[in-house]
Records
---
Amino acid sequence: MNTFKIEFFRLYDRKIASGELKFSDLGISKEEFTRLCTEQQFLFTEEKVMDLCKKMNLTKEETKKLTEACKK
């Protein structure tokens, strides 16, 4: 499985469950989200990943893990 996808959903699920984040906060379309869920090799652009990290209020360590996973 796509390393980025695993890392993204680990962080996303935790923040959604805690109420820290709503889907609409991410600024991604339902189409992009569906592609992330269904397409094995789907990746956001590096710029989009950095934007998601900010919108998700990730720590420096979480941001590093997610951006590194995007490069694998």
---
Amino acid sequence: MIRIRPTDDGTYTVYRDAAVVVTGLTRDQAYAVAQSIGASVVE
């Protein structure tokens, strides 16, 4: 499962299960990463 969470500094972090995939993204970038992984996104 892929999750996208906002951070305190206004960027977004993408998680796959409990692991951080990437951090410091804009919302659009985070969703693009999630789509490239090919999994459903849970916010």
